[in-house]
Amino acid sequence: MGAMIELVDVVKRYGDVVACNRLNLAVDQGELVTLLGASGCGKTTALRCITGSLRPDGGRIIIDGRDVTDVPTHKRNIGVVFQNLALFPHLTVVDNVGYPLRVRGVRSAERRERAIEALRLVRLDGLGGRFPRELSGGQQQRVGLARAIVYEPTVILFDEPLSNLDAKLRLEMREEIASLKDRLGFTSIYVTHDQEEALSLSDRIAVMKDGVIHQVGRPTEIYAEPRTSFVAEFLGNPNRLTGVCVERIQDQVVVEADGQRIVATDASGTLAIGDRAVVYVRPESVRIQDGDASPDETTLRATVVRSAFLGDSTEYILALSDKVNWHLRLDHATRLAVGEEVNLAAPRPGGRAFALAGSPVDGSPGVALGEQ
Amino acid sequence: MTAVAVAAGARIRPRLGPGLSRLITYTFLLAFVLYVLSPFLAILVTSVAQDWFGGRILPGSLTLRWFDWAFNVTNLPGVMANSFIIAGLTIAISLVIGIPTAWALGRRHVRARNVLMTLILLPKTVPPITFALGLSREFYSFDLVDTHLGVALAHTTLALPFVVLIMSATFAGLDERVLEAGRVCGGNWFRNLVHLVLPMAMPGLMASVLFTFVTSFNEFTLTLVTYGPDTLTLTVQTYLAIGDGFLEVASAISVVLLVPSVILLLLIQRQIRPENILGGVKGL
User: Using CB atoms and an 8 Å cut-off, which of residues 56-115 of chain A contact chain B?
Assistant: First the structure.
């Protein structure tokens, strides 16, 4: 199966700002790929280039084998679910959903039938006669969803569709989109800044920053093996240790900071002994050590600074040194007191190490990534 | 001092009983209403009055004779037709010029927008007779005097500011994202215009049409310098009837002239709002 959507070297500039810097991405049939990044990273610009609302300054956009770079929006046969809903306020729900069919010349009886079917798919049966303003936010978003799928477009684009909903509704709609995708098998690009949304919905994720795609991969891959420090930093809420590379064992390095040592995978493979490095450690990979360390673990010493009860667990802030605080979630079986000294066991490797901008050692904290 | 007096003083209430204060309020209100409505009352009564001379408070008897005169002697149907034709032309011209202008002002980045707006408002802000004088000189040289088109063009200068103001606000209020949704759904510009833009702009369009109609229908100053025998309008005919000394006939014509304004007033009373005209457009 070939790619349904392909971005080839897509460039978009706003004056001096490069919003999209040579983006390359191929989305296969039936795949959901997320563009994930903070606001201003260029993900929405990329999406608007695909819808045709923006014309890229360079590169090609190919949908279903057809170069659509110069094709106007209304001829691209795409569905879009908008963040702000963008429903037609003067049309009833059925007419909103039927609009894509109407402009395609589908006759009114069939239009109605298909619109009602699409509404049934998003579980809005019986609300077709209402106006958008008479529906709740979640219902309106379902109408937007139905409008995007009703004409079975080649691809469906999601532009932060859940960010205007409250947390509970967001979860529900996420489920809804996932189940629709399973049933209908559409190909989609999903833009979001919410990593949880991205991790749970996507077949693959493209992490973007400053108009550049840093890494594309399956959610587990991106989470476990970030290729750049930005990706490591952006996904999850990792603990950091900034220090100096003191030893190399094949593809692993030992990084030392304030007398504490941790073994980490050298993500870029370029760290040399003496280089400044930052290690990102997933909180869930570390455990409280009650006894001796096993041979495949390293031990770090920490002092409990603060604790926060979260209901199902408790979060502890642990100081590894004056400058380095880690956070760790523990179930209620383990209770730590503030001020208590604990040993942390980190596996080998316990995280991923990246060269720190501003190497070599000069005793100052990293230029790009200082400690909290 | 008693406690009551202290309480009253604390609330700085006028030292009048509630009954008296209400009486004064209503007296003023009634005076105001009479002041506003009495001319209309006078016209209404005059238009149906017979034997109303010499200090009588009410006419001796009522008659429809003046309406009959108005219709037959002054050719009221023809004059009315002129008024309607001119108003219709004014609406058409104002919309054709006003809507694209409003679109540009409301939705595009226009340089010197303020200068443009000032120019559009100019005919409404200068003394009408000054403007009328210049206009009549121009219209004579273009042979536009005593043509429906000519009078309508004169009226357009007054109606256009309404249209541009109302429609540019309407267009500026259109949600670009909704229009983008229309394109994404596959609608070309024409379909989106017909199915999305027009319905969403309908409240503004309706308001523009109504105000343009009333502006033209009630216009006097500019009509006076551009009308001729073939383009007599109701306002001018009223004026001429007064000049001829037929106060009763003039009143009868005025009553006819009042009808559209009263209808408009009632419409405004019922609030011309998007949701009332379209059956639901909030939720944007």
Answer: 72-75, 77-80, 82, 84, 86-91, 99-100, 102-104
Examine residue B4 and state whether it is found in any structural domain, yes or no: no
CB contact under 8 A, A90 and B281: yes
pLDDT digits (tens, 9 = 90+) for A76-90: 888 899 887 789 999
- What would the mean pLDDT of B69-88 be, rounded to a whole number? 87
Residue of B nearest to A149 (CA): B185
**Closest residue in chain B to residue A131, using alpha carbons only:** B280
Which two structure tokens, joined as six digits, stand for A237?
């809420």
Say if residue B121 is in the same domain as residue B218: yes
How do residues A196-231 score in pLDDT, each as one tens digit? 899 999 999 999 999 999 999 999 999 989 999 899
Query: Are B53 and B139 contained in the same domain?
Result: no
- Report DSSP state, residue A348: S
How far apart are alpha carbons A327 and A286 in whole angstroms? Answer: 10
Asked if the Cβ–Cβ distance from B183 to A132 is below 8 Å, we say: no
Helix (H, G, I), strand (E, B) or coil at B59: coil
A246 plus A101 within the same structural domain:
no
**Tell me, what DSSP letter sits at residue B190?**
H
> Could you tell me if B58 and B83 lie in one domain?
no
**What distance in Å separates the CA atoms of residue A72 and residue B112, rounded to the nearest whole number?**
31
| Inside any domain, residue A370 | no
CATH code, domain carrying A260: 2.40.50.100
Whether residue A368 lies inside any domain: the answer is: no
Chain A: nearest CA to B271, how far in angstroms? 18
Interface residues on B facing A, Cβ-Cβ cutoff 8 A: 175, 177-178, 180-188, 191, 195-196, 199-200, 202, 278-284
In this structure, of A211-220, A325-334, B12-21, B183-192, the range with the lowest mean pLDDT score is B12-21
Q: What is the DSSP letter of B197?
A: I
* Residue B73 forms part of a structural domain: no
The closest of B159, B154, B147, B97 to B129, measured between CA atoms, is B154
Q: Is residue A371 part of a domain?
A: no
CA B169 to chain A, closest CA, distance in angstroms equals 18
The minimum CA-CA distance between B58 and chain A, rounded to whole Å, is 53
| Structural domain span for residue B24 | 13-63
